[in-house]
Amino acid sequence: MKPDDFTKTLEMAILHGGHFHRKLAEAALAADPINKAKIFRAFPELTESFGPKSIFWESSYGKPSHLKVIK
Predict the structure, then answer these.
(1) Cβ(9)–Cβ(47) under 8 Å?
(2) What is the mean pLDDT of the chain?
(3) Residue-wise DSSP of 1-67
(4) Which of 16, 26, 31, 45 could crosslink 36 through cysteines, CB 3.0-4.6 Å?
């Protein structure tokens, strides 16, 4: 995945995930690159459930996200 795809995956988890996945995605957005990689490695369901091949990604692809990621 491209770096922007990781961010969009986290946005989809925040928008469509349960409480745990939302909090996990928020933590990943706040994390440095090393800890963000650890989160994705430890919880592959983030990518499986909310990544490019998920139903959530396809339904919002091409549409602007409601979230604004502040770096």
Answers:
(1) yes
(2) 84
(3) --HHHHHHHHHHHHHHS-HHHHHHHHHHHHS-HHHHHHHHHH-THHHHHHSTTSHHHHHHTTSPPS-
(4) 31
Burial class, 25, CB count within 10 angstroms (exposed 0-12 / middle 13-18 / buried 19+): buried
Residue 17 and residue 32: Cα distance in Å, rounded? 22
CA-CA distance, 20 to 64, in Å (whole number)?
A: 24
C-alpha span between 23 and 10 (Å, rounded): 10
DSSP for residue 70: -
Amino acid, single-letter form, for residue 2: K
The 10s digit of each residue's pLDDT in 15-36 is 999 999 999 999 999 999 999 9
